[in-house]
Structure formats: structure tokens, C-alpha cells
Design brief:
The protein is of the alpha+beta class. The protein has eight helices and twelve strands.
């Protein structure tokens, strides 16, 4: 199976420039030679006309002088009114008139005549002029061989050589421009070839100026920065996940080894209860990790129109103590979202609020501007402003007052923010009027007039 030859951009552009340069220079050479030919031909016609006019004036003064032509390549004939050749240059002695046309309606006429009185295969420019001889009108024919298409071989060679040099110069200039223009691209490629997973802190060189290559290098550097950040988050996440998974596994292993060493002293029901608790925690962590991975890999697709008041009411009704949660729900606050994911975000916020609330949790649904808001307040100790960015990190640990998990996986708030981001929304933490924490989930609001349900 054959493979096509790789042709670089520099080679392709140089070849294109060369072909265009050759075509344009050839066209210029052809136009230039045509213009030179026309100029020489017009000059030749003027000369031949002047030579014939001189002889016509001599005839009218009855003072015909020889030689009739001053150049050997010029031919002249004097033809009387009966068509008889009265005088001619030596090359036409004894030959019939070189032409039969006369200057009808004008004093001078010209035409191209081939053969006849001239050599076989030769074409001449013939100019006919009237000469008044008494009461008769005689015709003076003056002629010269036509100008060759290339005028002169040396002139054609000079024009062709000049155009070839011009085409070569244009091609070389094009090559140099492409080479210089693509030099920053080569530097970017070379730098990218050396960058690997262990050197993502490196950046490609950015060329000076404000052109497309500068924008390309800047875009590559931004991509590398995002990739470096993603890799760093992945490393941190892997370390945190390993730590979180290792803790229940270590506890489960210790309990089983203890039971294996002292089977007679082991309470089977207690062992099973502890083991199932650790397994439930492992399962919850793994499930949350998979959900986070799915949210980051693919945006939600199966969206539907959701009334947030109905959704919140349903989520609260499933809780062990729904009366602990006070509802402030505005009607007709709808969003286009994945029902299960928004429900999961609300559940996670309620779980967090209940873990840290002293007595009550308040959840409010309202529409503000173009956003539908779900607000969850608790009357706990609140969150310091310095920690409000960290609490959305995976497995984040704050001070002891809010780090007591009591059954959480440490991923609830991270999942809630990922769900908000996946739905073009936001999740922020503020201070509750009661002094605790207030979480505000904002999603794009669908006004009632646009509701298709």
C-alpha cells in the first residue's frame, strides 16, 4: 500500500509562487514583445510612407531621382494610370505591380501583400499613394518586409532572460517570506515536541507583533496552562481519593484481621455492622467519583422543563425529618435541566445544611432577573470568607467545627457546583441572616410565557 509523499507548506507555497511568477512574467514578456512589435511596425509604416511620399512629390515636380529607395530592404514602384510600371527599385525590375489596391477616398492606403512581385513566402507591408502627373493620377507603391513577431532574436532573448530573472527573484522572495513567516511555527512545534506530562509548566515562544502566528502561540500557551491546571487537579484528586478510600479499607481490614486472630472473641453481628458501614462509605465515595467524572466529561443532554418549587418539595419530603426544613417557595420558577442532577444538587445542599445547622434549615425558591435561585440557609457557625472557595474542592477539610462529616463523602458540595456549572449556572456561598451559611444555586430561568408544559 503506497503512501503519498509529504510536501511541506514551504515547498507548496514556493511552487505556487514560482508557477504564478512564471505565468505572469510570460504574460508580461508576451505583452511587451507585442507592444515592441507594434511600435516597430508603426515606425516602419511611417518610414515606408515617407519614402513613397518623397517619390510622389518628385513625380509631380517631374524630377524623379535615383535610387528610389535609400535602403536595400525597401521596395518602390511607380505605376501609371494604365497600370504600367514606370519605375522601380532594382529588386522589382521586370516584375508586375506589387499590389493592385489604390487609396480609394484617401491619399494614402496600406495593406499586407504576400507573394506576387515579392519572393515566395515573403509578406510585405505595402503603402499606396497618389501622385498627380498632369491630368493623370499615378500610384506610388512603397514596401518593406514585415517585422518578425519577435522583432529581433537578441531583443527577444534579452526580454525572455529578464523575465526569467524576474520570475526567479519573485519565487525566491516568496520562499524567504514563507520561511521567515513560518519560523515561529517551527519554534512552537519544536517546543511542543519537548513538552510532556512532566514539563507542562513550559510555554511555547510567542512571536512579536499582532498576527495570526502570535495568536496561535498565545492560544497554545493558554491551552497548556489549562492542561497543566487539569493535570495538577487530577494529581491532587488522585491523592485525595486514594487517601479517602484507604481509610475505610484500612478500618475494614483491621476489623477482619482482628476477627481472624481472635475468632472466639468476635461479635459477628457487630463485625458485620462495622464492615457494612465501611463498605457503604466506599460505595458512596465511588458513586460520587463516577458522577463527577460523568459531569466533567459530557454535558447534560436529556433536559426537561422543571418547576423548582415542585422539585424542592419532593426532595424535602423524602428526608427523615422533613419538618426541620422550612420552605419558602415561589410558584412558576422553571428551568431546563436534568431532573435527577438538579435534585441531587438540592439534596447535597440540604445534607450539608442539616449537618451543620443548630436547629433549623430554610430553603427558598425565587426568580431574580434572568436567574432561578435555590437558597439553602442554616443557622450553624457559618463559613469564613477565606474558606469559601475551598469548600467546593473535593475532600476539602476545614476547621474542626465543620469538618465532622457524620456520614458524608466530602464530595457533596463539589458535585453540587459541578451540576450547576454543567447547566450554565453557579453555586456560591454567602452569610445567612441567622449567621450561618447560605448556599445560592443559580440556574437560567425560563419565564412562564416560554413554558411549553
Amino acid at each position: 500500500m503506497g503512501t503519498g509523499r509529504r510536501i511541506s507548506i514551504t515547498t507548496r507555497i514556493t511552487l505556487f509562487t514560482g508557477v504564478v511568477a512564471v505565468a505572469l512574467c510570460s504574460l508580461v514578456a508576451a505583452v511587451l514583445m507585442f507592444a515592441i512589435n507594434r511600435f516597430v511596425t508603426d515606425s516602419l509604416v511611417e518610414e515606408v510612407t515617407a519614402a513613397g511620399g518623397r517619390v510622389a512629390v518628385q513625380l509631380e515636380r517631374d524630377r524623379l531621382e535615383y535610387p528610389l529607395a535609400q535602403r536595400r530592404s525597401r521596395s518602390l514602384q511607380v505605376v501609371d494610370s494604365r497600370g504600367k510600371v514606370i519605375a522601380s527599385t532594382p529588386s522589382l525590375f521586370g516584375k508586375p505591380p506589387m499590389a493592385t489596391f489604390t487609396p480609394d477616398g484617401t491619399n494614402v492606403a496600406e495593406s499586407v501583400v504576400c507573394g506576387g512581385a515579392f519572393l515566395i513566402g515573403e509578406c510585405d507591408i505595402v503603402v499606396a499613394q497618389w501622385a498627380h502627373r498632369g491630368r493623370e493620377k499615378w500610384v506610388v507603391y512603397s514596401a518593406s518586409p514585415m517585422v518578425p513577431p519577435l522583432v529581433d532574436p537578441l531583443l527577444a532573448a534579452a526580454v525572455g532572460g529578464g523575465m526569467a530573472v524576474l520570475a526567479g527573484t519573485i519565487t525566491y522572495i516568496g520562499y524567504r517570506i514563507v520561511t521567515v513567516s513560518l519560523r515561529p511555527v517551527t519554534a512552537v512545534r519544536a517546543e511542543l515536541d519537548e513538552i510532556n506530562a512532566s514539563s507542562l509548566d513550559r510555554r511555547v515562544p510567542v512571536s512579536p507583533g499582532d498576527d495570526e502566528i502570535h495568536e496561535l502561540a498565545d492560544s497554545v500557551n493558554r491551552t497548556l496552562a489549562r492542561l497543566e491546571g487539569a493535570m495538577e487537579r487530577q494529581r491532587q484528586f488522585t491523592a485525595d481519593a486514594s487517601h479517602e478510600l484507604r481509610t475505610p479499607l484500612a478500618g475494614l481490614r483491621a476489623q477482619l484481621e482482628e476477627a481472624q486472630l481472635h475468632p472466639g472473641e468476635t461479635d459477628l453481628n457487630e463485625l458485620l455492622a462495622h464492615s457494612l458501614s465501611d463498605l457503604n462509605r466506599l460505595q458512596a465515595i465511588i458513586t460520587d467519583l463516577l458522577l463527577l467524572a460523568n459531569l466533567e466529561c459530557s454535558p447534560p443532554k436529556l433536559r426537561e422543563r422543571i418547576d423548582l418549587a415542585t422539585l424542592v418539595r419532593a426532595e424535602v419530603s423524602r428526608r427523615a425529618d422533613p419538618h426541620k426544613v422550612r420552605l419558602v417557595l415561589a410558584p412558576e420558577v422553571s428551568v431546563d435541566a436534568v431532573h435527577s442532577q438538579v435534585g441531587r444538587a438540592v439534596t447535597n445542599l440540604l445534607d450539608n445544611a442539616e449537618r451543620h445547622a443548630r436547629e433549623a434549615v430554610v430553603i427558598e425558591v425565587r426568580a431574580v432577573g434572568g436567574s432561578a435561585e435555590v437558597i439553602v440557609d442554616d443557622d450553624g457557625e457559618g463559613i469564613a470568607e477565606a474558606d469559601r472557595g475551598r469548600i467546593f474542592e473535593r475532600f476539602a477539610r476545614l476547621d474542626a467545627a465543620r469538618s465532622r462529616d457524620r456520614g458524608g463523602t466530602g464530595l457533596g458540595l463539589a458535585i453540587a457546583r459541578s451540576i450547576a456549572n454543567a447547566h450554565e449556572g453557579t453555586l456560591q456561598v454567602e452569610t445567612s441572616p441567622s449567621g450561618g451559611a447560605r448556599f445560592v444555586l443559580r440556574l437560567p430561568w425560563v419565564p412562564p410565557d416560554d413554558d411549553d408544559s
